[in-house]
Amino acid sequence: MLRYQRHTSNSFLTASLCCVCLSSCTSSLIPAYDYHLRCWEDHRLKGDKLIEKQDLNDAEVEFKSAVAEAEHFGPADFRLCYSLNRLADLYFKRGDYQNVETASQRALAACKNQASVRSTDSGLPAIFAQEESLSLLRLAELRLKEERFKEAGSLFGRAIVILESLWHSHSLSVVDDLIGEELATALSGLALANYALGNAGLAEQHLSKALSVVSQLAAANQLKSVIRTQYEVLVQRAGQREAPRSISSAGQPECSSEQNTSFKLESLLDKIEVAIKDNQLSQAEQLLAKLNGNSPEPLDYKHRAIHLCTKLGDTYESQKQPERAANFYRKAIVLARQSGRSAELELALALQKLGDLYNVRDNPEIAIQFYEEALRILSSNLNNCDFELSWPVSALSSLYSRLGKHAKSEQLLLKRLHGLTAQPGRDPLKLAETLSAISFNCQKQGKMSDAVSCTQQALSIYEKENATSNPNYTFGHYFLGLETERNKDAEKELYHLSKALENTQRYRHLNMDGHLHCLSRLKELALQRKDKQSCLLLAAKTKSLLIDWIKAHRQDSPQTREYPFYLRWIGNLLVDEGKLDLAESYYREAIDIQRKILPKHDPDLVNSLAMLANAYHWNHKEDLGLSAAKEMLTICRETGLARDATVDLILSDFPALKSFGSDHLHATR
Predict the structure, then answer these.
(1) Closest Cα to residue 120, out of 16, 19, 14, 28?
(2) Cis-peptide into 296, omega within 30 deg
(3) How far is CA 186 from CA 89, 113, 626, in A?
(4) pTM for the structure as a whole
(5) I want to staple 435 with a disulfide (CB 3.0 to 4.6 A). Which of 255, 395, 429, 458 is the partner?
(6) What gap in Å lies between CA 230 and CA 213, rounded to an integer?
């Protein structure tokens, strides 16, 4: 659709503001009114200048302030409608369609509040009517993008009724050209909606009418070409080679080279969007390559190009083609950097998506780099609450925790907690999840009193919200059980473990990991009490649960960290039963997967190798055990992993590796 521009410097705006001020002349004597009027005008002028410079972020700040000032004049004031529509224009330029919807709906509601004013002031109805038509036009364009063609047609129709009334009226002759352009836009939009609904004849009538309106305007070459181009795009999408004759044979106006460039870029961007929507991804790539050849593009087109690159990356990601997805996220990043400060939010989004890509594919070190850069950008573009609740804060805290950087993770989570606490109508479950994550990081740092406090707060929220199927609820009770055991309070430990086990038994399909940990801890308690029968029963339950899960997920989930961890757990239980040959096979399968998905120095791989080495040793397969143990110690020495009990156990089982282990000990001290 045509990206129509509001002509803020024309006589229409001057006439509009004069009408508003005259209608409120008695109020202008009030100092507060006068102050807010000056503030509103100042923000409006600054916002217009910033939009001309394509500085959309700062322009957004100015027009948000203009809206706040306009609200002081009450719900029946032109300035509120005007400011909201300008804000919606800005969001449309940036491709932020959710906020376009919100601002346009607010503007439309504000226009409806003008009923009492319209009945008493002969100068204002036309002004308010045009603002209402602008809101309707923008909402109609959104419905076209969403392919909700009936709704789009209805909205365009409502706008046309208003604009035709203004077009035929001579009460405001200074705005004829602007109203004519908007009427032509609405008619061409209605044509697009009808064509999409299969009403080609009706579509041609509306489009011919639009071109007729354009022909009456003083300087409408650009508008005529854009209307014809957008219609041709839709016809091409329907599988026809060319537009109907009545359209393609319409008069070819003379255009400047600058206008021609704009038409070509607009048409190219529309075709790219259509190709992505129709899953013609190779075609979309070819068209994007052409777009990059038209550099330097105007900034508003670059914003659309950034959005389309990101969208193409999302499409490839959904089709499980991560390399192609990463390629287009990087292109979006390059375009956003070229666009400067006006595209910082788009840059942060593309960086975040690239971080997600690496995060999902278990490459946390690279993911962290992208998240951290996205966070730096967001910190200067969002208010404190929005920044604290942003996705990179959540993702980074999780990655920091996973890599053992628990102090960093806790710091970010505390910011998130602050944002949630300050947020009106906050989500209690998000608050509980954040408290649980803070508790985990406090545990890892030995800050047990803080961890207990956070866990208790989180559990009370889960119970109040009846959300006891949440994994954090289970782990909370599990953790409190361990804490009470450390404090020699056996009764409380059994209470917490029984709560956790009861919950995981009911929701085992949602929370298998919690169920396993509870069974494992109860097995340890049975061992301590020398209750061999209970210990064997719990071990058998654990093994049965693990084997069932592995069978169900063998085809779907082997490339995750969780899968080999469960394989190794089964191996440990089989070792306890003395089934060493079978245990070896589970350890080997776990190691094969971990070698593919984990970095060489990952502690999980090191532990799996140690367990396999010990299984070989206990099964009297010394050569195989020696080979696995040596590989493990080599990784430790090359990567500087600290010596621990696992290494000592290997050295005690394999005397031939004593000198090799001594070298490692020396290297890691």
Answers:
(1) 19
(2) yes
(3) 16, 23, 79
(4) 0.51
(5) 458
(6) 17
For the chain, give the mean pLDDT. Answer: 75
Q: Is 593 helix (H, G, I), strand (E, B) or coil?
A: helix
* Tokens, residue 539: 């071990």
Distance CA 63, CA 43 (A): 6
Cβ-count burial 338-375 (b if 16+ within 10 Å, e if not): ebeebbbbbbbbbbbbbbbbbbeebebeebbebbebbb
CA distance 504 to 470: 9
Report pLDDT for 636: 76
Q: Half-sphere exposure (CA, 13 Å, Cβ side) for 149?
A: 13
68-to-63, 111, 599 alpha-carbon distances in Å = 9, 16, 53
Which of the pair, 34 or 379, is modelled with greater confidence? 379
Distance CA 643, CA 629 (A): 14
Helical (H) or strand (E) element with 656: none
Question: Roughly how many angstroms between the first and final C-alpha of the chain, as a whole number?
Answer: 67
Least confident of 143-152, 231-240, 265-274, 374-383: 231-240
Q: What whole-number distance in Å separates Cα of residue 80 and Cα of residue 103?
A: 11
Find the DSSP H helices in 295-341. 299-318, 322-339
Share of the chain above pLDDT 70, in %: 72
**Are the beta carbons of 662 and 651 closer than 8 angstroms?**
no
Closest to 573 measured CA to CA, from 603, 545, 598 = 545
Give the amino acid at 545.
L
Q: What percent of the chain has pLDDT above 90?
A: 7
Residue type, 312: L
> What's the pLDDT score for residue 349?
87
Q: Is the CB of residue 473 less than 8 Å from the CB of residue 462?
A: yes
Nearest residue to 272 via CA among 259, 263, 282, 260: 282
pLDDT at position 18 is 43
Structure tokens at 238: 């329907």
* pLDDT greater than 50 at residue 453: yes
Top mean-pLDDT range of 10-24, 31-45, 410-424: 410-424
Show the DSSP H helices in 554-641 as ranges: 562-576, 580-597, 603-618, 622-639
Chain-centroid distance of CA 102 in Å reads: 18
Largest CA distance in the chain: 103
- C-alpha angle 535-537-540 in degrees, rounded to nearest 5: 110
- Amino acid 454 reads C
**Which tokens hold the place of 150?**
């009936």
Nearest one of 507, 481, 485, 506 to 495, comparing CA atoms: 481
Distance CA 628, CA 644 (A): 17
